[in-house]
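Minimal example, chain plus protoporphyrin IX containing FE.
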Amino acid sequence: MYTPQLELDDIQGDMLVGMQKNAELFLFFKITDARRFKMLMRQYVVGQVTNARTTVERERIIEARKQGRPRSTGPWLGLNLGFTCEGLKHLLGARRPKLDPAFERGAADPATVARLNDPPTGEWLHDFTSDRIDGVFLLAGPERDFVAIHESSLRRRLGAAVKVVYAETGMVRPGREKGHEHFGFTDNISQPGIRGLTRPSRPSTEPDQGLPGQALVWPGEFLLGYPAQNPKHPDRPGPVVPLPASWAKNGSYMVFRRFEQRVPEFRRFVTAQAARLGIYPELLAARVVGRWRSGAPLELMPLEDNRWLGANPMRNNDFSYAGDLFQRACPYAAHIRKANPRDDPPGGMAETRTHRIIRRSIPFGPEVQPGETVTRHRRGLFFVCYQASIERQFEFIQSRYSNSPDFVTGKKRPDTGAPVTPGFDPIIGQNREGGGRFMDEPAPNYPYGNRRTMLEIPEEFVVLTGAAYFFMPSIKALRNLVN
Ligand code: HEM
Protein backbone atom coordinates (compact mmCIF):
# COMPACT_ATOMS: atom_id res chain seq x y z
CA MET A 1 0.00 0.00 0.00
CA TYR A 2 1.45 3.42 -0.86
CA THR A 3 1.90 6.20 1.70
CA PRO A 4 0.29 9.53 0.88
CA GLN A 5 2.61 12.54 1.08
CA LEU A 6 1.07 15.30 3.16
CA GLU A 7 2.09 18.90 2.50
CA LEU A 8 2.56 19.74 6.17
CA ASP A 9 3.93 23.25 5.53
CA ASP A 10 0.72 24.18 3.75
CA ILE A 11 -1.82 22.62 6.16
CA GLN A 12 -3.05 24.57 9.21
CA GLY A 13 -1.74 23.06 12.43
CA ASP A 14 -4.88 22.30 14.42
CA MET A 15 -6.48 19.59 12.29
CA LEU A 16 -3.97 16.77 11.87
CA VAL A 17 -1.97 17.17 15.07
CA GLY A 18 -3.70 19.74 17.25
CA MET A 19 -2.25 23.01 18.48
CA GLN A 20 -0.54 22.55 21.84
CA LYS A 21 -2.75 24.24 24.38
CA ASN A 22 -3.83 24.76 27.96
CA ALA A 23 -5.86 27.78 26.86
CA GLU A 24 -7.59 28.50 23.58
CA LEU A 25 -9.40 31.63 22.56
CA PHE A 26 -12.08 31.57 19.87
CA LEU A 27 -12.51 35.00 18.33
CA PHE A 28 -15.51 35.20 15.99
CA PHE A 29 -15.47 38.21 13.70
CA LYS A 30 -17.32 40.00 10.96
CA ILE A 31 -15.37 41.63 8.12
CA THR A 32 -16.40 45.28 7.98
CA ASP A 33 -13.89 46.49 5.38
CA ALA A 34 -12.80 43.69 3.05
CA ARG A 35 -10.06 45.66 1.28
CA ARG A 36 -8.40 46.74 4.52
CA PHE A 37 -8.90 43.31 6.08
CA LYS A 38 -7.02 41.70 3.18
CA MET A 39 -4.18 44.19 3.41
CA LEU A 40 -3.76 43.78 7.19
CA MET A 41 -3.99 40.01 6.94
CA ARG A 42 -1.20 40.02 4.33
CA GLN A 43 0.92 42.35 6.44
CA TYR A 44 0.51 40.89 9.91
CA VAL A 45 -1.40 37.64 10.13
CA VAL A 46 -0.84 35.12 7.33
CA GLY A 47 2.88 34.77 8.12
CA GLN A 48 2.02 33.94 11.77
CA VAL A 49 -0.40 31.08 11.07
CA THR A 50 0.79 27.84 12.68
CA ASN A 51 1.21 25.03 10.16
CA ALA A 52 1.12 21.27 10.67
CA ARG A 53 4.90 20.93 10.38
CA THR A 54 5.25 23.20 13.42
CA THR A 55 2.67 21.30 15.49
CA VAL A 56 4.38 17.98 14.58
CA GLU A 57 7.76 19.40 15.62
CA ARG A 58 6.30 20.71 18.91
CA GLU A 59 4.85 17.25 19.64
CA ARG A 60 8.33 15.76 19.15
CA ILE A 61 9.79 18.24 21.62
CA ILE A 62 7.08 17.32 24.17
CA GLU A 63 7.82 13.62 23.64
CA ALA A 64 11.56 14.22 24.10
CA ARG A 65 10.87 16.14 27.33
CA LYS A 66 8.84 13.21 28.66
CA GLN A 67 11.79 10.96 27.98
CA GLY A 68 14.10 13.25 29.96
CA ARG A 69 15.70 15.05 27.01
CA PRO A 70 14.56 18.61 27.70
CA ARG A 71 14.93 21.30 25.05
CA SER A 72 14.33 24.85 26.08
CA THR A 73 11.81 26.75 24.00
CA GLY A 74 9.79 29.90 24.63
CA PRO A 75 6.02 29.64 25.15
CA TRP A 76 4.28 28.45 21.99
CA LEU A 77 1.52 30.40 20.30
CA GLY A 78 -0.82 28.49 18.00
CA LEU A 79 -2.76 30.62 15.51
CA ASN A 80 -5.26 29.20 13.00
CA LEU A 81 -8.26 30.65 11.24
CA GLY A 82 -11.27 29.78 9.16
CA PHE A 83 -14.09 31.44 7.26
CA THR A 84 -17.80 30.81 7.14
CA CYS A 85 -19.62 30.74 3.85
CA GLU A 86 -20.57 34.42 4.42
CA GLY A 87 -16.92 35.25 4.99
CA LEU A 88 -15.85 33.60 1.73
CA LYS A 89 -18.58 35.55 -0.10
CA HIS A 90 -17.05 38.73 1.26
CA LEU A 91 -13.56 37.81 0.21
CA LEU A 92 -14.29 36.26 -3.17
CA GLY A 93 -17.55 37.82 -4.32
CA ALA A 94 -20.78 36.14 -5.30
CA ARG A 95 -19.22 34.20 -8.18
CA ARG A 96 -17.04 32.09 -5.89
CA PRO A 97 -17.16 28.29 -6.30
CA LYS A 98 -19.56 26.43 -4.01
CA LEU A 99 -18.01 24.20 -1.35
CA ASP A 100 -19.46 21.42 0.87
CA PRO A 101 -23.31 21.59 0.85
CA ALA A 102 -23.56 21.71 4.67
CA PHE A 103 -20.95 24.47 4.80
CA GLU A 104 -22.96 26.45 2.26
CA ARG A 105 -26.09 25.96 4.37
CA GLY A 106 -24.35 26.97 7.60
CA ALA A 107 -24.92 25.79 11.16
CA ALA A 108 -27.61 28.36 11.98
CA ASP A 109 -29.72 27.64 8.90
CA PRO A 110 -33.21 26.33 9.78
CA ALA A 111 -32.56 23.24 7.63
CA THR A 112 -29.44 22.42 9.65
CA VAL A 113 -31.20 23.06 12.95
CA ALA A 114 -34.04 20.74 11.88
CA ARG A 115 -31.68 18.05 10.57
CA LEU A 116 -29.75 17.91 13.86
CA ASN A 117 -32.70 18.47 16.24
CA ASP A 118 -30.76 21.48 17.55
CA PRO A 119 -32.45 24.01 19.82
CA PRO A 120 -33.74 26.97 17.78
CA THR A 121 -31.15 29.72 17.24
CA GLY A 122 -33.36 32.05 19.31
CA GLU A 123 -32.33 29.97 22.35
CA TRP A 124 -28.59 30.17 21.58
CA LEU A 125 -26.32 32.58 23.43
CA HIS A 126 -27.52 36.03 22.43
CA ASP A 127 -24.04 37.52 21.87
CA PHE A 128 -23.07 34.66 19.60
CA THR A 129 -26.02 35.29 17.30
CA SER A 130 -25.93 39.10 17.61
CA ASP A 131 -24.28 39.64 14.22
CA ARG A 132 -23.04 37.86 11.10
CA ILE A 133 -19.98 35.66 11.69
CA ASP A 134 -17.52 35.71 8.77
CA GLY A 135 -14.62 33.95 10.37
CA VAL A 136 -12.89 32.74 13.50
CA PHE A 137 -9.37 33.01 14.87
CA LEU A 138 -8.14 30.20 17.11
CA LEU A 139 -5.39 31.34 19.48
CA ALA A 140 -3.84 28.58 21.57
CA GLY A 141 -1.15 28.78 24.22
CA PRO A 142 0.13 27.67 27.61
CA GLU A 143 -2.07 30.00 29.70
CA ARG A 144 -4.98 32.42 29.60
CA ASP A 145 -2.90 35.62 29.94
CA PHE A 146 -0.53 34.60 27.17
CA VAL A 147 -3.44 34.04 24.80
CA ALA A 148 -5.06 37.31 25.92
CA ILE A 149 -1.89 39.30 25.10
CA HIS A 150 -1.84 37.85 21.60
CA GLU A 151 -5.55 38.50 21.25
CA SER A 152 -5.15 42.21 22.00
CA SER A 153 -2.26 42.51 19.58
CA LEU A 154 -4.35 40.79 16.86
CA ARG A 155 -7.33 43.05 17.59
CA ARG A 156 -5.08 46.13 17.47
CA ARG A 157 -3.60 45.11 14.15
CA LEU A 158 -6.91 44.38 12.46
CA GLY A 159 -8.48 47.52 13.97
CA ALA A 160 -11.74 48.60 12.38
CA ALA A 161 -11.40 46.18 9.44
CA VAL A 162 -13.24 43.63 11.59
CA LYS A 163 -15.88 43.72 14.28
CA VAL A 164 -15.51 41.10 17.01
CA VAL A 165 -18.89 39.39 17.30
CA TYR A 166 -18.01 37.02 20.13
CA ALA A 167 -14.85 35.91 21.95
CA GLU A 168 -14.42 33.32 24.66
CA THR A 169 -11.49 31.36 26.07
CA GLY A 170 -11.45 27.65 26.83
CA MET A 171 -9.12 26.21 29.47
CA VAL A 172 -8.06 22.72 30.36
CA ARG A 173 -9.44 21.93 33.81
CA PRO A 174 -7.16 22.53 36.82
CA GLY A 175 -4.95 20.11 38.74
CA ARG A 176 -5.90 16.45 38.58
CA GLU A 177 -8.88 17.25 36.37
CA LYS A 178 -6.57 18.22 33.50
CA GLY A 179 -7.58 16.22 30.43
CA HIS A 180 -11.12 15.62 31.75
CA GLU A 181 -14.28 17.27 30.42
CA HIS A 182 -16.64 18.80 32.99
CA PHE A 183 -18.66 15.63 33.74
CA GLY A 184 -15.33 14.23 34.88
CA PHE A 185 -14.36 11.83 32.08
CA THR A 186 -10.97 11.72 30.39
CA ASP A 187 -11.42 13.14 26.90
CA ASN A 188 -9.34 13.03 23.74
CA ILE A 189 -8.40 9.35 23.89
CA SER A 190 -9.75 7.96 20.63
CA GLN A 191 -8.76 9.86 17.49
CA PRO A 192 -8.38 8.43 14.01
CA GLY A 193 -4.80 7.81 12.88
CA ILE A 194 -3.81 9.52 9.61
CA ARG A 195 -2.07 7.59 6.86
CA GLY A 196 1.08 9.42 5.87
CA LEU A 197 1.45 10.96 9.34
CA THR A 198 0.67 8.59 12.25
CA ARG A 199 3.37 5.96 12.76
CA PRO A 200 2.22 2.38 13.43
CA SER A 201 3.26 1.35 16.95
CA ARG A 202 3.46 -2.34 15.91
CA PRO A 203 4.43 -2.06 12.22
CA SER A 204 5.17 -5.73 11.62
CA THR A 205 1.91 -7.10 13.04
CA GLU A 206 -0.50 -4.13 12.73
CA PRO A 207 0.64 -1.91 9.83
CA ASP A 208 -2.86 -0.39 9.51
CA GLN A 209 -3.01 0.89 13.08
CA GLY A 210 -1.26 3.77 14.82
CA LEU A 211 -1.62 3.05 18.52
CA PRO A 212 -3.30 -0.32 19.16
CA GLY A 213 -6.94 0.01 18.12
CA GLN A 214 -6.34 3.31 16.33
CA ALA A 215 -7.25 2.66 12.72
CA LEU A 216 -5.22 4.52 10.11
CA VAL A 217 -7.64 6.49 7.98
CA TRP A 218 -6.85 7.92 4.52
CA PRO A 219 -6.18 11.65 4.79
CA GLY A 220 -8.87 12.57 2.24
CA GLU A 221 -11.40 11.98 5.05
CA PHE A 222 -10.10 15.14 6.75
CA LEU A 223 -8.24 17.14 4.13
CA LEU A 224 -9.32 18.09 0.62
CA GLY A 225 -7.26 16.84 -2.29
CA TYR A 226 -6.14 13.44 -0.93
CA PRO A 227 -7.46 9.88 -1.32
CA ALA A 228 -10.34 9.19 1.06
CA GLN A 229 -11.52 5.85 2.50
CA ASN A 230 -12.76 3.10 0.24
CA PRO A 231 -16.34 2.54 1.50
CA LYS A 232 -16.09 -1.16 0.60
CA HIS A 233 -12.71 -1.89 2.22
CA PRO A 234 -11.52 -0.65 5.62
CA ASP A 235 -7.88 -0.22 4.65
CA ARG A 236 -7.77 0.49 0.92
CA PRO A 237 -7.94 4.02 -0.47
CA GLY A 238 -10.96 5.28 -2.32
CA PRO A 239 -10.96 7.99 -4.95
CA VAL A 240 -9.70 11.55 -4.45
CA VAL A 241 -12.90 13.61 -4.31
CA PRO A 242 -12.67 16.34 -7.00
CA LEU A 243 -11.79 19.74 -5.51
CA PRO A 244 -14.49 22.44 -5.62
CA ALA A 245 -11.67 24.86 -6.58
CA SER A 246 -7.94 24.29 -6.99
CA TRP A 247 -7.21 26.51 -3.92
CA ALA A 248 -9.29 24.22 -1.69
CA LYS A 249 -6.46 21.62 -1.60
CA ASN A 250 -5.03 21.08 1.91
CA GLY A 251 -8.09 22.77 3.43
CA SER A 252 -10.57 21.19 5.84
CA TYR A 253 -14.01 21.92 7.29
CA MET A 254 -14.31 22.77 10.96
CA VAL A 255 -17.48 22.35 13.01
CA PHE A 256 -17.71 24.50 16.13
CA ARG A 257 -20.38 23.83 18.77
CA ARG A 258 -20.61 25.58 22.11
CA PHE A 259 -22.13 23.17 24.62
CA GLU A 260 -23.11 24.13 28.14
CA GLN A 261 -22.91 21.16 30.51
CA ARG A 262 -25.28 21.00 33.47
CA VAL A 263 -22.91 19.20 35.80
CA PRO A 264 -24.77 19.25 39.17
CA GLU A 265 -27.94 18.10 37.40
CA PHE A 266 -26.05 15.31 35.61
CA ARG A 267 -24.51 14.12 38.89
CA ARG A 268 -27.86 14.16 40.67
CA PHE A 269 -29.57 12.30 37.85
CA VAL A 270 -26.89 9.59 37.78
CA THR A 271 -27.03 9.13 41.56
CA ALA A 272 -30.84 8.89 41.65
CA GLN A 273 -31.10 6.56 38.65
CA ALA A 274 -28.31 4.32 39.89
CA ALA A 275 -30.17 3.94 43.20
CA ARG A 276 -33.37 3.07 41.31
CA LEU A 277 -31.52 0.47 39.22
CA GLY A 278 -29.62 -0.91 42.19
CA ILE A 279 -26.16 -0.31 40.70
CA TYR A 280 -23.43 2.05 41.91
CA PRO A 281 -23.38 5.55 40.39
CA GLU A 282 -19.93 5.27 38.80
CA LEU A 283 -21.08 2.20 36.90
CA LEU A 284 -24.13 4.00 35.52
CA ALA A 285 -21.99 7.01 34.56
CA ALA A 286 -19.63 4.67 32.69
CA ARG A 287 -22.58 2.92 30.96
CA VAL A 288 -23.72 6.34 29.71
CA VAL A 289 -20.31 7.27 28.25
CA GLY A 290 -18.86 3.85 27.35
CA ARG A 291 -15.68 4.58 29.33
CA TRP A 292 -14.90 5.03 33.01
CA ARG A 293 -13.68 8.39 34.24
CA SER A 294 -10.10 7.17 33.91
CA GLY A 295 -10.71 6.48 30.22
CA ALA A 296 -10.74 2.68 30.62
CA PRO A 297 -13.31 1.38 28.11
CA LEU A 298 -16.27 -0.71 29.27
CA GLU A 299 -15.48 -3.21 26.54
CA LEU A 300 -12.29 -4.12 28.44
CA MET A 301 -13.44 -3.32 31.99
CA PRO A 302 -17.21 -3.97 32.10
CA LEU A 303 -17.77 -3.79 35.87
CA GLU A 304 -15.00 -1.71 37.46
CA ASP A 305 -12.60 1.07 36.58
CA ASN A 306 -8.90 0.46 36.05
CA ARG A 307 -6.82 3.63 36.14
CA TRP A 308 -3.70 2.00 34.85
CA LEU A 309 -5.54 0.75 31.78
CA GLY A 310 -7.31 4.09 31.31
CA ALA A 311 -3.99 5.95 31.22
CA ASN A 312 -2.20 3.42 29.01
CA PRO A 313 -2.36 4.44 25.31
CA MET A 314 -1.18 0.96 24.28
CA ARG A 315 -4.31 -0.55 25.89
CA ASN A 316 -7.08 2.01 26.33
CA ASN A 317 -8.38 2.04 22.76
CA ASP A 318 -7.67 -1.50 21.70
CA PHE A 319 -11.15 -2.99 21.40
CA SER A 320 -14.10 -3.47 19.08
CA TYR A 321 -17.80 -4.17 19.57
CA ALA A 322 -18.57 -7.12 17.32
CA GLY A 323 -17.83 -9.55 20.16
CA ASP A 324 -20.24 -7.75 22.51
CA LEU A 325 -23.30 -8.94 20.62
CA PHE A 326 -25.84 -8.30 23.36
CA GLN A 327 -24.45 -5.04 24.88
CA ARG A 328 -23.43 -6.96 27.97
CA ALA A 329 -20.18 -4.99 28.37
CA CYS A 330 -21.17 -1.65 26.76
CA PRO A 331 -24.66 -0.38 25.90
CA TYR A 332 -25.36 0.13 22.19
CA ALA A 333 -26.34 3.72 23.02
CA ALA A 334 -23.30 4.68 25.15
CA HIS A 335 -21.77 7.92 23.81
CA ILE A 336 -18.60 6.39 22.40
CA ARG A 337 -20.38 3.37 20.91
CA LYS A 338 -22.82 5.67 19.10
CA ALA A 339 -20.22 8.22 17.97
CA ASN A 340 -17.82 5.60 16.62
CA PRO A 341 -19.51 2.21 16.37
CA ARG A 342 -16.30 0.63 15.01
CA ASP A 343 -17.13 -2.85 13.62
CA ASP A 344 -20.72 -2.96 14.93
CA PRO A 345 -23.01 -1.69 12.12
CA PRO A 346 -24.01 -4.01 9.27
CA GLY A 347 -21.47 -2.30 6.91
CA GLY A 348 -18.63 -3.00 9.40
CA MET A 349 -15.39 -1.04 9.69
CA ALA A 350 -15.33 -0.04 6.00
CA GLU A 351 -18.60 1.82 6.52
CA THR A 352 -17.82 3.47 9.88
CA ARG A 353 -14.43 4.74 8.67
CA THR A 354 -16.25 7.02 6.26
CA HIS A 355 -17.86 8.79 9.26
CA ARG A 356 -14.83 9.64 11.39
CA ILE A 357 -13.93 13.09 12.69
CA ILE A 358 -10.83 14.57 14.33
CA ARG A 359 -11.86 16.22 17.63
CA ARG A 360 -10.04 19.22 19.08
CA SER A 361 -12.36 20.32 21.88
CA ILE A 362 -11.52 22.23 25.07
CA PRO A 363 -13.60 22.86 28.22
CA PHE A 364 -14.67 26.35 29.29
CA GLY A 365 -16.04 27.86 32.48
CA PRO A 366 -15.29 27.43 36.18
CA GLU A 367 -15.30 24.29 38.26
CA VAL A 368 -18.52 23.46 40.11
CA GLN A 369 -18.50 25.71 43.19
CA PRO A 370 -19.14 24.43 46.72
CA GLY A 371 -22.89 24.42 47.28
CA GLU A 372 -23.71 24.69 43.57
CA THR A 373 -26.45 22.08 43.42
CA VAL A 374 -28.16 23.71 40.45
CA THR A 375 -26.02 25.09 37.61
CA ARG A 376 -25.27 28.73 38.40
CA HIS A 377 -22.14 29.26 36.28
CA ARG A 378 -21.81 28.72 32.56
CA ARG A 379 -19.44 25.86 31.87
CA GLY A 380 -19.10 23.26 29.16
CA LEU A 381 -17.19 22.27 26.08
CA PHE A 382 -16.12 24.11 22.95
CA PHE A 383 -16.54 21.15 20.64
CA VAL A 384 -14.38 21.40 17.53
CA CYS A 385 -14.05 18.76 14.84
CA TYR A 386 -12.43 18.54 11.40
CA GLN A 387 -13.52 16.58 8.34
CA ALA A 388 -13.71 16.65 4.54
CA SER A 389 -17.52 16.50 4.42
CA ILE A 390 -19.65 17.98 7.20
CA GLU A 391 -22.71 16.09 5.96
CA ARG A 392 -21.08 12.69 5.81
CA GLN A 393 -19.07 13.05 8.99
CA PHE A 394 -20.20 15.34 11.84
CA GLU A 395 -23.85 15.68 10.73
CA PHE A 396 -24.11 11.97 10.05
CA ILE A 397 -22.83 11.07 13.53
CA GLN A 398 -25.14 13.56 15.22
CA SER A 399 -28.31 12.82 13.26
CA ARG A 400 -28.03 9.19 12.15
CA TYR A 401 -26.21 7.74 15.13
CA SER A 402 -26.63 9.87 18.29
CA ASN A 403 -30.13 11.24 17.66
CA SER A 404 -31.48 8.04 16.20
CA PRO A 405 -32.96 5.63 18.78
CA ASP A 406 -32.97 2.76 16.24
CA PHE A 407 -29.20 2.87 15.70
CA VAL A 408 -27.40 0.46 15.85
CA THR A 409 -29.88 -1.60 13.88
CA GLY A 410 -30.43 -5.32 13.69
CA LYS A 411 -29.79 -6.21 17.35
CA LYS A 412 -31.83 -8.88 19.12
CA ARG A 413 -32.44 -9.87 22.75
CA PRO A 414 -30.38 -12.90 23.71
CA ASP A 415 -33.30 -14.71 25.39
CA THR A 416 -36.35 -13.94 23.26
CA GLY A 417 -34.82 -12.87 19.95
CA ALA A 418 -37.01 -9.73 20.09
CA PRO A 419 -35.60 -6.68 18.27
CA VAL A 420 -33.78 -4.06 20.39
CA THR A 421 -34.24 -0.28 20.17
CA PRO A 422 -30.94 1.01 21.63
CA GLY A 423 -32.15 4.58 22.32
CA PHE A 424 -30.45 8.00 22.21
CA ASP A 425 -26.83 8.84 22.95
CA PRO A 426 -27.40 10.08 26.53
CA ILE A 427 -24.59 12.67 26.27
CA ILE A 428 -25.25 14.41 22.94
CA GLY A 429 -28.36 12.78 21.48
CA GLN A 430 -31.14 15.29 20.81
CA ASN A 431 -34.79 14.46 20.36
CA ARG A 432 -37.06 16.56 18.22
CA GLU A 433 -38.24 19.79 19.91
CA GLY A 434 -36.29 18.93 23.06
CA GLY A 435 -38.44 15.86 23.75
CA GLY A 436 -37.33 13.30 26.36
CA ARG A 437 -34.84 10.58 25.57
CA PHE A 438 -34.16 7.04 26.69
CA MET A 439 -31.37 4.49 26.62
CA ASP A 440 -31.69 0.72 26.67
CA GLU A 441 -29.92 -1.47 29.24
CA PRO A 442 -28.37 0.99 31.71
CA ALA A 443 -27.82 -1.90 34.18
CA PRO A 444 -25.37 -4.45 32.81
CA ASN A 445 -26.23 -8.09 32.18
CA TYR A 446 -22.60 -9.06 32.48
CA PRO A 447 -21.34 -11.70 31.94
CA TYR A 448 -24.88 -13.08 31.61
CA GLY A 449 -28.44 -12.32 32.70
CA ASN A 450 -31.58 -11.04 31.08
CA ARG A 451 -32.77 -8.25 33.32
CA ARG A 452 -34.51 -5.67 31.12
CA THR A 453 -33.86 -2.06 32.22
CA MET A 454 -34.42 1.32 30.60
CA LEU A 455 -33.07 4.76 31.43
CA GLU A 456 -35.62 7.54 30.89
CA ILE A 457 -33.83 10.88 30.44
CA PRO A 458 -36.39 13.69 30.64
CA GLU A 459 -33.85 16.55 30.74
CA GLU A 460 -30.74 17.44 28.71
CA PHE A 461 -27.38 17.77 30.45
CA VAL A 462 -25.60 19.07 27.35
CA VAL A 463 -27.22 22.11 25.78
CA LEU A 464 -26.18 23.63 22.47
CA THR A 465 -25.78 27.41 22.81
CA GLY A 466 -24.02 28.33 19.55
CA ALA A 467 -22.66 26.70 16.41
CA ALA A 468 -20.90 27.59 13.18
CA TYR A 469 -19.29 25.84 10.21
CA PHE A 470 -15.93 27.02 8.87
CA PHE A 471 -13.57 26.29 5.99
CA MET A 472 -9.97 26.24 7.18
CA PRO A 473 -7.97 27.06 4.05
CA SER A 474 -4.41 25.96 3.38
CA ILE A 475 -1.71 28.55 4.05
CA LYS A 476 -1.24 29.04 0.28
CA ALA A 477 -4.99 29.54 -0.18
CA LEU A 478 -5.04 32.04 2.71
CA ARG A 479 -2.41 34.09 0.88
CA ASN A 480 -4.50 34.01 -2.30
CA LEU A 481 -7.76 34.80 -0.52
CA VAL A 482 -6.31 38.00 0.91
CA ASN A 483 -4.61 39.10 -2.33
C1 HEM B 1 -20.39 18.27 25.82
C2 HEM B 1 -20.36 17.42 24.79
C3 HEM B 1 -19.51 16.18 24.78
C4 HEM B 1 -18.92 15.50 25.82
C5 HEM B 1 -19.01 15.78 27.32
C6 HEM B 1 -18.20 14.39 25.22
C7 HEM B 1 -17.44 13.47 25.94
C8 HEM B 1 -16.70 12.46 25.38
C9 HEM B 1 -15.86 11.54 26.11
C10 HEM B 1 -15.67 11.54 27.63
C11 HEM B 1 -15.30 10.70 25.22
C12 HEM B 1 -14.34 9.53 25.54
C13 HEM B 1 -12.91 9.90 25.36
C14 HEM B 1 -12.37 9.65 23.99
O1 HEM B 1 -12.53 8.56 23.43
O2 HEM B 1 -11.75 10.55 23.45
C15 HEM B 1 -15.78 11.07 23.91
C16 HEM B 1 -15.45 10.44 22.73
C17 HEM B 1 -15.97 10.77 21.50
N1 HEM B 1 -16.89 11.74 21.22
FE1 HEM B 1 -17.69 13.03 22.56
N2 HEM B 1 -18.38 14.42 23.86
C18 HEM B 1 -19.17 15.49 23.56
C19 HEM B 1 -19.58 15.88 22.30
C20 HEM B 1 -19.39 15.16 21.15
C21 HEM B 1 -19.96 15.46 19.86
C22 HEM B 1 -20.88 16.65 19.54
C23 HEM B 1 -19.54 14.50 18.99
C24 HEM B 1 -19.86 14.34 17.53
C25 HEM B 1 -21.07 14.49 17.01
C26 HEM B 1 -18.68 13.61 19.73
C27 HEM B 1 -18.01 12.54 19.20
C28 HEM B 1 -17.14 11.73 19.88
C29 HEM B 1 -16.34 10.70 19.23
C30 HEM B 1 -16.29 10.37 17.75
C31 HEM B 1 -15.61 10.08 20.26
C32 HEM B 1 -14.62 8.94 20.11
C33 HEM B 1 -15.34 7.61 20.11
C34 HEM B 1 -14.39 6.48 19.83
O3 HEM B 1 -13.66 6.55 18.85
O4 HEM B 1 -14.42 5.49 20.58
N3 HEM B 1 -18.63 14.02 21.03
N4 HEM B 1 -16.63 12.15 24.03
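The chain has a mean pLDDT of 96. The chain has 14 helices and 15 strands.
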